[in-house]
Description:
The structure is a single chain. The protein has 156 residues and is mostly beta strands. The protein has a single domain (27-153), classed as PCu(A)C copper chaperone (Immunoglobulin-like, Sandwich). Helices cover 12% and strands 49% of the residues. Strand 1 (29-37) and strand 2 (45-52) form a beta hairpin. Mean pLDDT is 85; it is low at 3-23. Residues 46, 75, 86, 108, 110, 151, 155 line the site of copper (II) ion. Copper (II) ion is lined by residues 46, 75, 86, 108, 110, 151, 155.
Amino acid sequence: MEVLKPVSCVLGCVLALSPALAAQGQEAVLEDAWVRALPPTQANTAAYVTVRNPGPEPLVITGGAAALAGRLELHDTVEVDGMLRMRQQESVTVPAGEAVAFAPGGLHLMLLDLERMPAAGEVLKLCLEINGAPVCTEAETRRGQASPDREHQHHH
Ligand SMILES: [Cu+2]
């Protein structure tokens, strides 16, 4: 996990990056990102975020990266014969003016091959590859609600 840059750097850093991002993922807004805390014996967990697209063009999410995770996959949850199964998605599209929620029980970001399970309260950097450019946010680790967590038990 990178150390947060001092506030004085923020504007300058954004300006320095803007040429590369101008035509790419800058319209994407990542909101309410969080990572589910699971027992430390687990090697994988899930992260959730809402991706809002205020721009006039569709946004296509093709992958991403998260601190501590060896890799990140886009997953959906589908019910097959009464069983919840996860299915990897090549990409997820956010139509112009709309938002897509990665949320428990449906679309989620799978964090695989964790170096270690993050602790509740730990904040991880989370980036999504959107229209070919990384868009990053910070995701707080939380213990999941008592709601169905079965999506993880059927993984791999
Ligand atoms: Cu999954």
